[in-house]
## 1
Amino acid sequence: MDIFVKPPFYAKAALIFISVFALIFTMRIGQEIIIPVVYALLTAILLNPLVNFLIRKKINRLIAISIAVFLSIFVVIAILYVLSSQVSQFSEAYPKLKEKMDVTTNNLLNWISEKFSIRKAKINTWISDTQKEAIRDFAIAEKLSEAGQVVVTVMLLPVYIFLFLYYKTLLLEFIRRLFRSEHHIVVADVLMSTKKITQSYLSGLFFEMLIMAVLNSVGLLLLGIEYAVLLGIIGAILNVIPYLGGIIGVFLYMAIALVTKSPEYVIYVAILYAIIQFVDNNFIVPRIVASKVQLNALVSIIVVLIGSAVWGISGMFLSIPLTAIAKVIFDHIDPLKPWGFLLGNIVPTNSRFSLPKKIKIRSSYKNKKQ
């Protein structure tokens, strides 16, 4: 007769720690392969309703998938075209902007030197050393190699997306066969919930980016800030990164306003950005994005930082949808439901956890004694 021995807590904790470490290590060393696959998988899930719609219209499945992939490529090219046109205008005006930036930096250094009694030469030396170290750490050859890898990845993405859509039934059947028949209902529920939340979140995020790009650009144009459209689009893209992206965006706007306009425009830009963020957080996000992914703010910030440490910029963008998918899985597995609850944004008014009576009595006795 088989005897089941329950492992002690320290053994389970050690196994969990080793598993998490192995997973993160694998994600780190295999990021060049894993990141494109994850992007392609999420995009394929997003495009799946369009493919199904075209198939219902009696269009051949291969042609339907091809149309969906080419449409996604067209949207990306259109966005890149708008960005490139704005960047070209920025590059033409860059010499003047750099001259203004040097003057502003010099004035700022003079103010710091007078205010804090620090010699200007010492500040310049520190800035020069920092710049040299940054250039040395940048490793131009390594960055060129990474740029080449990015180009190869971008070229492979449409292929990955096409194959994910084409082999969808094969992959679903593989997942079904991994589990016993009594678990098929739960597995199907997890897959449906994952697909729904991914499609809703990504589509909502895309529409939020469009709205934020328009609001940012119009607001900056009204203030007369140069490169308003480019800055508006960059701010909308940064806004995808929860909490941290907004901070980076407002500092970028304030820096451009300080260099191209005057110090009072820094305050105007800060007020404008605060108004736009208020509209985004209270009207746009609750109706378009937040209702799709129920993650609390603490978890969102932590997973974004972990994603940045493991996968860089891609990790910052992918961390939220991947965590949302993990929450769906946790919520459907009994032993993992507490972790799903921890990731969620439902905050109980009070905790039902209470200390045993003996501990309460001892604690009160000690307090009286003191």
## 2
Amino acid sequence: MGAIFSDAHVLTAVIRYNLMVMLFFTFITVTFNPNLLRLDHFKVLAANIILPIVVFLLVRIWDVETAMALLVIGLAPTAAGAPVITTFLKGRVDHVTVSILLLSPAMALLIPFFLPLVLSSGAVEIQVLDVLIPVFTVVFVPLVLSFLIKKVMPLAVPYIAKASKVNFYLFLFNVFIASAKATDFIRNDEQANWVSILSIGIGVTVLGLILFQLGERLGAPDLKLENSMSLGRKNTMFALWLALTFVGPLAALGPMLYILFQNIYHSIAMYQLDQREKGNLSTGNS
């Protein structure tokens, strides 16, 4: 639909506000329990900071646009939908929830300082303050608002949480707008070419596999799935907003392709789990 109605690219600014609403519903529906905080969470956070920068510096030698697309994906925190996928895969939801609540504000604090630093030698020139205020607004306004509601009006939380289903439709609408923006860019900008698009697609696939596999190996053996989910399952809407706001439409193809990649990745994981359970059931019955 975005490719067909590419004029919808004029709505790009709406992505920011949709993202704020999505984060608000995420924060209002999850509760931080400091007793669940483990060393594994900080290992995931460290990897979420270091790996994107290393990948950017290496890939930049080959192609700057691909490097920037991968950078915005890698910097994104754990996805709001990660606990749901963890449930389907029979993992510990509480561990992944803590990752969301740790990585979201932590990356919001760090990105305004090292994103300009990393991009300063590339095709994009941005200042710390250019990133600081928008990122703080997008992440911390929903975070503080949800915290205040929980403290002042705790009885209202269950009713507000019921409306969180709107996140799915906001997600789809953001993808629609981003698709329109990317389509308009590909049609009208000389920088856009199929070599760059293919390069970003290959880069996204390789980065995704590295993130998920590295997550499995970061911490405790009994938390392989949870750490993999925390590092690999990205908040693609945040990455999409970062790309469109501070980098460029071509870089926004990275998060869009990552949406496809991570859902294929977890669809395969769910299928494998289903087959194992069927096999165990058959063995038990026999």
## 3
Amino acid sequence: MNMNTPIMTQASTTRSDALATNKVLRNTYTLLSMTLLFSAATAGVSMALNLPHPGLLLTLAGYFGLLFATSKFRNSGLGLVSVFALTGFMGYTLGPILNAYLSLANGGQVVMTAMGGTGLIFLGLSGYALASRKDFSFMGGFLMVGILVAFVGGLAAVFLEMPMLSLAVSAMFVLLMAGLILFETSNIIHGGETNYIMATVSLYVSIFNLFTSLLQLLGVMGGEE
């Protein structure tokens, strides 16, 4: 009887899990890079053509509709089509927002600062989660409730025309999206998320909301309404 068999089996399982995790990480960051580039391209086209913003209701309908499609087809090739449709659509909605900021006196500086801040926060938090390999799964419930509260608060700020509430929501989203980056990266590392398409969507949404929230906060801090 070979007493080493259980140990060898466990080691083999551990290596297999590590390889699967690394594959999800690799595929996630590859797809995330591609979707960010595609989103930037659609934003650039939207800006160049000076396209109007689709409005809050159409934006929400497009976002949640494409998000549902991505989730439904996440295990097939249609999932890739859906994720590019989603990120492309979000890039299109970002174009008019960037044009509005760039038309301001210090708009270029605000946009570049927000972009740089978003990049530093994402790389810093992702790097920390990957290097420390800490489990941030305990943040899941808090993030879910926090995002729901911030989302409702954001809608209230728009419909009730409350600028200060809008700024508070933006500040909340900065913190929540930072937490979501840690949570999702940790989730991939520890095997909680095995679908790279959904992992990509989660990280993309974090980056998008982080950037737009910083944009609004920096715009106000720069003295622009």
## 4
Amino acid sequence: MSYADVNGIDLYYEEHGSGQPLILLHGGLGMGEMYAPILPLLAKERRVITVDLQAHGHTADVDRPLRYQTLADDIAALIGHLGLAQADVMGYSFGGATALRTAIQHPHLVRRLVLVSEPCQRDGWYPESVAGMEQIGSQLAEPLKQSPMYQIYAQVAPRVQDWPVLLDKTGDLLRQDYDWSADVAEITAAVMLVYADADAVRPEHIVRFYQLLGGGLRDANWDGSARSVNRLAILPGHTHYDVFASPDLATAVIPFLDAPSLEPPAPFTP
């Protein structure tokens, strides 16, 4: 359990296991502890670093808005703080957007990228999901004190009284429009997209996002020689709200993270 002084923020992180580093980024209003159910699986043969992003969990807020671009800069600075040349980065929802921006803004720092339940543009969410995001704000501070998210926050937050501020800043962020479709071309890491089969992200957007990464554009050939280096997984029996803690998620991403090479096989020559 440590803090990294990066970009004017004391960023809380924990390390588990050893091996190839994997940075885990949590969902909105959450913290690194969200991954506790699958952490033993992920850390069995790798060095897992869970992070509490600005104003979340153990990390105190600072005088700046919540923006995915600045959160991504924090993760890049953390990679430097840890003395790493590169790291694998996996993020869910809010953390997925941060992971995506990290790979776009700092491509040389990300070896493999896993995005869980995250679109590359705002209208990739279902309209009802967007409507819910637009309601987030301090007016929900008292009702949400009955939620598990607040119960955990209240136990570890440096300033529990900042809960309404976190809600206002999160709501302000979620109301910002974004479309990073063109920016996807900046990513040099191999990418895996993971969604629940009953996700908050629209299936047609999932397909488009995968195609932007070069996947699903053609038949892969019988020997896989035309296969994209990037991957797509749809996990059955899950929703946006439980997929991050499912062993199915770990089972899906571990082979992608462990693969020594993601290049397609050489074409068969008789």
